[in-house]
Every structure is written in structure tokens, then in C-alpha cells.
Design a protein that fits this description.
This protein has about 170 residues and is mainly β. It is built from no helices and 17 strands. The strands form 5 sheets. The protein has a 4-stranded antiparallel beta sheet, with no helix packed on it. A 4-stranded antiparallel beta sheet has the order 10-11-12-13, with no helix packed on it. Strands 14-15-16-17 form a 4-stranded antiparallel beta sheet, with no helix packed on it. About 30% of the residues are buried.
Length: about 170
């Protein structure tokens, strides 16, 4: 288990990274993130942790960075087309998906981005039916679910095979 970034009690973004050693139940420091961040997204594919967007100080980010757990090293990848924070991030079928969040002006987004680690390219896919931020994004049975968010109690399901979002029972 890894713990990445976040912020201090006085709101300063962090770049620290720690991992839990299960053999002795102690946290160990590993290579820090290249950029301080809070309110970012993260997902794991294989032995790599992909970290995107968020805040660094008073600036929103569009960065995409990857941490290789085997080499204990960070690399910068192609950034997202736009800055965003407080969004959902997950992976499905070796692709990374980023949904919603807040744009540079603080407005909620419905847009959805798809990233291919193989080609290092972002593309837009069908937007969600509702703009949302502060929501959870999970994969289950070949679909992606956007759950809740600030002032939302709805759930949407994305079917990548037909590039479509539908509302499901809240």
C-alpha cells in the first residue's frame, strides 16, 4: 500500500510518498513525487502508479506522472489537455479514465478523458450526463461507475464498448 501527496493542516501540498512494508508493519519513505500535489487522481496498472492533475499550491495541474514500484523512480508523461482537480480516476482494459472534476475556474466538468499508457496519448470519450466533482470512480464487470460527488446522489455507468453513459440506481 502506498500513500502519496496530500496536504498539511495549513493547506500546503505535499510530494511525499510512503509505502507500508507488510513484513514489519512499518511505513517506509520512497522517492518523492516530482511535483507537490493534493486533490489529484491516482490509479495502478501492473507495478506502476499513475498520478494526474490536482493542485500544487494555488495552481491547478494537468500533469501525468508515473511511479515505477520496481525501480523506485518517477517519470513525466503526456499531460492532460486541460487542468482539473477533485476528479475521478480509474483504469479499465489497460486504459486510464479521468472523469469530471473542477476546471481552472472552479466549475464542475462532465468531460471524460481516456489515456493509453502504450501510446502515451489522451483522447476524449463521451462525457458524463452530469457534471460532477468529488466523486468516486470504480470499475466493475467491464464498466466504469461514477458515484455521487459534491451535491450529487446519482450514479452513472459508462460502457466503453458503445461509448455511452447511463444512469443506474442511486
Amino acid at each position: 500500500m502506498y500513500c502519496l501527496g496530500g496536504q498539511t493542516e495549513d493547506g500546503k501540498a505535499l510530494f511525499s510518498v510512503s509505502k507500508l512494508n507488510p513484513t514489519n508493519n512499518h511505513w517506509e519513505s520512497v522517492t518523492i513525487m516530482p511535483t507537490t500535489k493534493s486533490y489529484f487522481g491516482a490509479t495502478v496498472i501492473g507495478k506502476k502508479i499513475y498520478v494526474s492533475g490536482g493542485w500544487s499550491g494555488n495552481k491547478k495541474l494537468n500533469l501525468l506522472e508515473v511511479y515505477d514500484c520496481e525501480s523506485n523512480a518517477w517519470a513525466e508523461l503526456t499531460p492532460m489537455q486541460n487542468v482539473r482537480s477533485d476528479f475521478g480516476m480509474t483504469n479499465l482494459n489497460e486504459y486510464i479514465f479521468v472523469t469530471g472534476g473542477l476546471n481552472v475556474s472552479g466549475y464542475p466538468l462532465s468531460s471524460v478523458l481516456k489515456y493509453s499508457p502504450e501510446t502515451n496519448v489522451w483522447t476524449e470519450v463521451k462525457p458524463m450526463n452530469e457534471a460532477r466533482y468529488g466523486h468516486e470512480l470504480i470499475t466493475l464487470n467491464g464498466s466504469i461507475y461514477a458515484i455521487g460527488g459534491r451535491n450529487k446522489n446519482t450514479v452513472e455507468r459508462y460502457s466503453p464498448a458503445i461509448d455511452k453513459w447511463d444512469f443506474v440506481k442511486s
